[in-house]
Structure formats: structure tokens, C-alpha cells
């Protein structure tokens, strides 16, 4: 039997984590060969290599160095280089994750040369088109052949845009990833001791989104908000390089916050396991907080992960309080989203003809 070839495009931190879950499922599928292409969007060791090592992601067959620069420059350079790789590798499909510039470049490069695109984490919408991620998602979904959705809301969002074929609700691969991390980090307290917070109440914080770091007035407001929160408990803030650069350039030294470099996935989950609160603008962390049953305050004006708000675990930083009783969220699946996705991908590839698109 000839194996079908999938090229997986990754470039940014959350994509390594999602791809790790799906790659593990691919490994046990005899009919599929996966090759990884790393665009280099994230390149610091603690933003990239650490995840390949910890999560056992196969080494990239192609590693580009296309991080940094404006949206147009980064996406354009990726488009050019990915097209060359796709033409040479002739994959049966290209697999993209989430909503970064690497996602959009992978989608556009593939669809223009008639390679089917598979989108993991399809259908999410914030309905805020000022977010670069929203544009990346809308366009990627429009050209994707298989749309693997994490929630019913994301399926409904696609329906509202007229995208109905090959749309599957599979659950959230971040749930799979979290269960894996929990298993690997049981009783790991070394980091807590190193940070001097073992046995103390503390919150975990991340903040890097363009809408928060590009608007300096808003960034200052958020820092003041965090300083206020720091009067209640210690805050461990793992600082994304984008935010670190901004703080350094502007000489910002927030009061009462413990600023640390980005940590690996298992250390982040150790922090989540022991914290009392999560403060973040990250998409992934809002759900990971819920998976650990920790309350979250999201430092954005809207979220795609509306289930976390509706179930009382998450609130926007502008809201006075969490709403409702803290319940369970069925939509995120049971931790087998990767297996379901790989089965659907295999099915699609075994039926695939030169033109499957029939939206
Ligand atoms: C990107 C994604 C965002 C995602 C985030 C995950 C887009 C439009 N945005 O945002 O959706 O939430 O990744 O973390 O794709 N930098 C370094 N070292 C690195 C990586 C980045 O120094 O390893 C610095 C560079 O100065 C770079 C800046 O951070 O220019 C921003 O990086 P970029 O990848 O453009 O955007 P993110 O904010 O990381
Ligand atoms: N994360 C990590 N180390 C850190 C901060 C975050 O491993 O220091 C993980 C976190 O657990 C989550 C993912 O990175 O799974 C989220 O990535 P990010 O916030 O960069 O992107 P987003 O989810 O906003 O797209």
C-alpha cells in the first residue's frame, strides 16, 4: 500500500503543542507519512525547540527561518518558500493549525497549487477583524478542504459563513495535550521551589497579543490591572519575547510581578496545577485553565472560547465577576480529538481524487 503524505506546517508555540498531539496519533496510523515544515516564525529555544524535545515531535524535514518583520513581509516570505517545498514534496494534503501567519501562508501556498488543506481548530471567530488572527482564520477556513472544529460553536460559525461540507466537530486537541502534560508532570514541584512559591497562593500570567502590545495606552492599563491583582497574591508572569521587547524598549518594570522567561510546556502545566488563578490573553491558556479547573481572567475584550465564560470559569478583565455556577464543558471532547482527527484525515485521503472540493 502506498502511504499518503501529509505536510504539517507549524511555526508558533501553540502550533507545536497542537501538532504534537496529532503527530502521536499519526505515528500509529500505517497509511500516513507525516513530514513537518517549521516556518521559523518562533525561533528562540524556549519558544520552539523546547516543545520538540519535551513533546517528542518529529524533527522538521524543512526548517525555514522566516520569523520577525511585519505581517506582509513574514507571510509573503513564507508563501514563497512553502510553495517551493510543496512543489518539490508533492504532498497529498497540507495540514495547518490555528490562526497564525504560518497558518495562512500554508493554506494559501497549498490551495493555489491544488493541494487539499486540512485545518485543525477551524471555525473559531472573535468577530473582531482588527485581530490578525481573525483574518488568518477566516481566510484559511475559506480555502480548507477538511475543517476540524474544536466546538459546536465553531461548527455553527462556519455554517453561518456557508461552509458546511467536510466540517467535523472533533473536540479540542489542546484537551488531549493537557491530559498528556498532566500525566507527565505529576508531583513535579521543582519549579515551584526554584521560584519560591511552593505552598503559597499564586497566579500564572501571560500576555502577548497584538491588540494588547501594539496599543501602548492599553498595555499600560493592563500592567496597572496586573499590579492591582498582584496585591492579592504572587503573580508569575512568563513573558513572551514580544512583550519583553516592549517592556525593555519602554523601560517598563511592573511592580510586584515575578517576570520570568517563557517556560516549557510541562513547567507551564506544573504552574497551572498549583496556581489559584490564571491571567492571560492567550487562546490556549483560557482552556488549559479550565482543564485544570482554575478560574481565569482573560485580558481581551472578547473571546472565541465562549464556553469558558458561559460555564463560569473565565471572565473578561472588564467584567466585574464570573457568571454562573462553575460547570463542565462537554464541547471540548474527552481528550481523543487527535485520534478522531487522524481517522477523518485518513478516510478523506483514501477517498481523495484530484478535486474533492464541493462547497
Ligand atoms: C503569534 C501569533 C499569535 C499567537 C502567538 C503565539 C500571528 C499573527 N500571531 O504572535 O496568534 O498567539 O504567535 O505565541 O501569527 N520573537 C522573538 N523570538 C521568538 C518569537 C518572537 O524574539 O522566538 C519576537 C520578535 O521580535 C517578533 C515578535 O516577537 O517580531 C512577534 O512575533 P510574531 O510571531 O510576529 O507574533 P506573536 O506575538 O508571537
Ligand atoms: N505556554 C508555555 N510556556 C509559557 C507560556 C505558554 O508552554 O511560558 C503554552 C501554554 O500552555 C499554551 C500555549 O503555550 O498551551 C499558548 O501559546 P500562546 O499563548 O503563545 O498562543 P495562543 O494560544 O494565544 O495562540
Based on secondary structure, the structural category is alpha/beta
Quick one: how many beta strands? 13
The global form is globular
**CATH level 4 superfamily of the largest domain:** Glycogen Phosphorylase B
The major β-sheet equals: 7 strands, parallel
List keywords for this structure.
Rossmann fold, 6-stranded parallel β-sheet, about 350 residues, single chain, alpha/beta, binds uridine-diphosphate-N-acetylglucosamine
Could you characterize the architecture of this molecule?
Helix content is 44%, strand content 16%. Helix 3 packs across helix 4 (101-112) and helix 7 crosses helix 13. The chain is globular. The strands form two sheets. Strands 3-2-1-4-5-6-7 form a seven-stranded parallel β-sheet, sandwiched between helices. It contains 15 helices and 13 strands. The longest helix has 19 residues, at 71-89. The protein has helices spanning 13-27, 49-55, 71-89, 101-112, 132-142, 152-160, 173-185, 190-195, 210-213, 216-229, 241-250, 265-274, 283-291, 306-310, 337-351; strands at 4-10, 32-38, 62-63, 93-97, 117-120, 146-149, 167-169, 202-206, 234-238, 257-260, 277-280, 296-298, 314-316. With 359 residues, the protein is an alpha/beta fold.
Amino acid at each position: 500500500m502506498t502511504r499518503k503524505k501529509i505536510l504539517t506546517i507549524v511555526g508558533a508555540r501553540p502550533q507545536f503543542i497542537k501538532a504534537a498531539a496529532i503527530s502521536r496519533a499519526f505515528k500509529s496510523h500505517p497509511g500516513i507519512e507525516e513530514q513537518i515544515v517549521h516556518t521559523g516564525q518562533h525561533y528562540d529555544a524556549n519558544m520552539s525547540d523546547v516543545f520538540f524535545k519535551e513533546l517528542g515531535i518529529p524533527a522538521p524535514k524543512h526548517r525555514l527561518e522566516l520569523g520577525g518583520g511585519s505581517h506582509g513581509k513574514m507571510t509573503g516570505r513564507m508563501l514563497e518558500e512553502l510553495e517551493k517545498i510543496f512543489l518539490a514534496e508533492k504532498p497529498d494534503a497540507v495540514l495547518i493549525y490555528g490562526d497564525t501567519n504560518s497558518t495562512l501562508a500554508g493554506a494559501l501556498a497549498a490551495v493555489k497549487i491544488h493541494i487539499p488543506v486540512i485545518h485543525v481548530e477551524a471555525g473559531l471567530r472573535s468577530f473582531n477583524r482588527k485581530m490578525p488572527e481573525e483574518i488568518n482564520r477566516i481566510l484559511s477556513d475559506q480555502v480548507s478542504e477538511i475543517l476540524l472544529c474544536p466546538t459546536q460553536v465553531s461548527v455553527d460559525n462556519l455554517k453561518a459563513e456557508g461552509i458546511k461540507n467536510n466540517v467535523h466537530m472533533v473536540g479540542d486537541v489542546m484537551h488531549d495535550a493537557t491530559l498528556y502534560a498532566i500525566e507527565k508532570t505529576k508531583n513535579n514541584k521543582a519549579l515551584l521551589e526554584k521560584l519560591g512559591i511552593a505552598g503559597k497562593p499564586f497566579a500564572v500570567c501571560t500576555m502577548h497579543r497584538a491588540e494588547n502590545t501594539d496599543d501602548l495606552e492599553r498595555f499600560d492599563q493592563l500592567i496597572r490591572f496586573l499590579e492591582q491583582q498582584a496585591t492579592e497574591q504572587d503573580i508569575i508572569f512568563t513573558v513572551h519575547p514580544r512583550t519583553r521587547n516592549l517592556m525593555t524598549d519602554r523601560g517598563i518594570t511592573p511592580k510586584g510581578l515575578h517576570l520570568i522567561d517563557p517556560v516549557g510546556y510541562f513547567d507551564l502545566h506544573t504552574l497551572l496545577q498549583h496556581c489559584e488563578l490564571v491571567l492571560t490573553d492567550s487562546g490556549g491558556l483560557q482552556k488549559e485553565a479550565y482543564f485544570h479547573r482554575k478560574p481565569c481572567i482573560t485580558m481581551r475584550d472578547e473571546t472565541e472560547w465562549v464556553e469558558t465564560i458561559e460555564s463560569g470559569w473565565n471572565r473578561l478583565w472588564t467584567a466585574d465577576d464570573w457568571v454562573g455556577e462553575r460547570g463542565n464543558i462537554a464541547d471540548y471532547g474527552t481528550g481523543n480529538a487527535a485520534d478522531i482527527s487522524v481517522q477523518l484525515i485518513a478516510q478523506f485521503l483514501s477517498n481523495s481524487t484530484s478535486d474533492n472540493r464541493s462547497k
